[in-house]
Write a structure and sequence with these properties.
There is one protein chain. The chain is 14% helix and 42% strand. The chain is mostly beta strands. 30% of the residues are buried. The model has no long low-confidence stretch (mean pLDDT 94).
Amino acid sequence: MPVDPLEFRRVLGHFPAGVTVVTVRGEDGRPYGLTATAFTSVSLDPPLVLVCVDRKSESFPHFERAGAFAVNFLRLDQRETSQRFARSGGDKFADVPYETVATGSPVLRDRLGFLDCTLVHRYEGGDHVIYVGRVEAADAGPGEPLLYYRGAYRRLAEEGDS
């Protein structure tokens, strides 16, 4: 018998995850994006990553038609950015500077790091779709990552911190 979805979610909440904003360029030329913690590396050679996008997400139709996406790693001081891209409705990119690097996908200028990816695989994953991308450009800078753990934003603890 499968695990109850609410219990599954509760248990998964005990696994800390980095917070990302995943972005695409829509067919209309506009940028779209969402907050995601369902992200991981897949392969070093070739460099592949995956991100899981909820079918109910307002941005989902744009991901379905895009041939590329960017994963932006958020810094500890970017809770507001995470919350902005997690909400439905409105222009999430209003007053959020971004640039394009390799694929045309929006890369946030203010971020801890980014991966700019060409879509290479798409898999059905229950209520989500799994997108695998080949990394075409990447960069990271200084700062502390924004983490999500047990339903709240967290920070890394230094060794010896309690």
